[in-house]
Structure formats: structure tokens, C-alpha cells
Amino acid sequence: xxxxxxxxxxxxxxxxxxxxxxxxxxxxxxxxxxxxxxxxxxxxxxxxxxxxxxxxxxxxxxxxxxxxxxxxxxxxxxxxxxxxxxxxxxxxxxxxxxxxxxxxxxxxxxxxxxxxxxxxxxxxxxxxxxxxxxxxxxxxxxxxxxxxxxxxxxxxxxxxxxxxxxxxxxxxxxxxxxxxxxxxxxxxxxxxxxxxxxxxxxxxxxxxxxxxxxxxxxxxxxxxxxxxxxxxxxxxxxxxxxxxxxxxxxxxxxxxxxxxxxxxxxxxxxxxxxxxxxxxxxxxxxxxxxxxxxxxxxxxxxxxxxxxxxxxxxxxxxxxxxxxxxxxxxxxxxxxxxxxxxxxxxxxxxxxxxxxxxxxxxxxxxxxxxxxxxxxxxxxxxxxxxxxxxxxxxxxxxxxxxxxxxxxxxxxxxxxxxxxxxxxxxxxxxxxxxxxxxxxxxxxxxxxxxxxxxxxxx
Length: 458
What we know:
Number of helices: 16
Shape: globular
Order of helices and strands: HHHHHHHHHHHHHHHH
């Protein structure tokens, strides 16, 4: 757990401290809500009730996050004790906003562009807000504990899908297929029904998310949170044996989350876990050497990414597909059509959220499916936000990583830890608030929530 330095010269006012606790609770409620209720993938039409409600849900959550950051900034600035921690995200975020404005002006569907920009900018603003308000080890541990706990909840959902609900859903669909297809706006006998049945009969385990890769990615984040909590307490094990129960709990949580990762069968998540383990081992063994040559390593990584992209593109152009199964064939169809779309608007992009309008006009004749995203995040940003937006997005990642690798060890937080009793009280209050919000909000968002029983909601 990284110990961040704070500015002891400008202590925060009591009102601002209370406001930051409220905003922290709000951010944790949003994290919990987005983890346990994820909207469907974006579609071109908003006439379908499901997609319309998803758009309203996304915009509402994004508006809450944006408003929270603006409220903190204004109140902190007006308090006369303004203190801001520079993260490195700011430069990239500013460039990304510039690219979003340029692309938004040329977008064919400007309403959709505004929606996409708001949804896209909200998470970085929440990250900036959390950096400012996580000014003690207890707050950082609280966020990690919430993420780890949500990992257990997601693991339970994965296990329930694997052992029970997937088979029940198949049986219900076979008895009354129209009951499932109609709310989704899928016409019987269409290619969309074929895709729906393909996903249904694949028995994919995805937790509360829309894809297995998404569930696997969140499982990785929750696993890392549990590991950090374990490692932080393990340092105190010799001096304080009473943390033994805490260590067992963290280890058990990590094991449960790891089991859910196995159930998702997400290849990307497994590769990510392996790469993270390798990078961690290298950093532990050769940390000083990496810091001394970080500039050369960064350049080598960039050249490797560029070279890898060139190799993939060259193979695809020669063979008309990527190596692998049918999923790699359709990925190449997405990317090949995306290159044609980008060639039409190389400087500005087609506009945020507007990819789905252009893909049907450029997709290969053999491609049956129309998608609203090329299934490649950097490529999606390049096409929709233009090269300016892509540069901003990459800087949002690279600059904080550069700062993290160049920071000197031993920075100690100026804020002392709160007593254990206060820490438990804080955790209990946030536990009650988050649980109450989920029990109140999730049933209103879930379609057919009136049919849910209390045990399912709980």
C-alpha cells in the first residue's frame, strides 16, 4: 500500500473533511453499484427499452461522479486551504478532452457523442477525486476492502451461474423463447437471435458483467486488493500476532476470488495475472536496476508495441484473418473495417459513440454481425476521438506509470493513522451505507425486480 505524502502546512477545515467522507462514500457506492449491476454494451438505437434504460443509468452514474469532483474542487478552492496532489493524469486528460471536443463537433450523432464523452470522462475524474481524498491509510484500506469484498460477491454470482442459473436460463428459453427475446428487442429468426443463443448455450460465467473477460478483469483487481491488504498486515505479524485472523480472512478472500477467475475461463485475465506476477517478481529482484534504466525500458516497450501491431496487421492482411479460432476471424473483420472508417476521418475521428453508425457501411461482406465497438480499446479511441484523443489517453496511462517508477521509496504520510476503534467505526458506517444503497437502488434498476426474492437481493 503506497504511503502518500500530504501537505501538513494547509490542514483541511472540518467542513471539508466531512464533505470528503461523504464523497468517499458516494464513490464507494458507485463502485459497488457498477460492480453488481452493469449496463449492456452500447447499441446504435435507443428506442429499445433496455438500451434506453442502460443509457440513462450510465449518464446518471457519470453525472454523479463528475458532480462529485466539481463539488470537491470548488469547496476545496473556496476554503482558502486548497491543496491538490498532481497525479500525471491531468495532462493526458486535458488532451483527451480537446480531442473529444474536436471529434464531437464533426460527429454525425452529436447527442450520442455527448453521452459517450460524459461516460468516458467520469472514471478518470473519480480517480482524480480519490487521489485527493484518500489522505490516510485507513481510507485507502477501506477502498481496498470494499473492492475485495465485491470480488467475493462477484465470485458467489459466478458460482451460482456455473452450478445453477445457466442451466435454468436455458430451460426457460427453450420453453418460452419470446419472453426473453422481446425485452431485448430481438426478432425471432434473425442473426441477433443466433448470437443470443450462441452466448446462452456457451454457458459463459460472467458474474454481474456482460462478458467473461470483464468478470475476469474485475476478479484480478479484487485479487490484487486482497493481496495488498494481506501484505500490509503481514508486516506487523511478528510484533502483533493478533492480526492472524485478519491474515486468514484475506487469504481466504483471495482464494475465493481466484476460484471465480478460474470459473470465468477468461484467457485475457489469465494472461494478465501471469504478466502481473512476472512484472512483480522482476520489480522485486531488479527494482533499482529498472529505475536506473527506466527511460530505455519505456522506449523498448513502445517499440515492442509498435512492432507487435505491425506484425499483427501484416499477418491479417496476408491471410485475411488472425491466427486462432472463429473469434479471431471476427476480430480481424472488426479491425479491418475500422481501418477503413479511420481512413475517412484521420484527423478528427468519426465522433465519440458514433462507430456503430459507420461500421455497417465498411464491414466485409462475409461479416454477418454489426457491432458498436471494434473490440480494441486503443483502436476504438483512435477512430472515435481521433489521434489527439488517443495521445491523451496514452499519456493518462504512461505519465502516472513514469512517476510511479521514478518516485523515491520511503515517502511517509504526514497524516497519522487513526486508532483501531475509530477505524472499525468508519468501516462499519461505510458498510451500512453501501449495503443500504445497493438494497435500495439495484431493485429499481433490475428489469423485473418485483419478481426478485429477498434472499436474491440480499
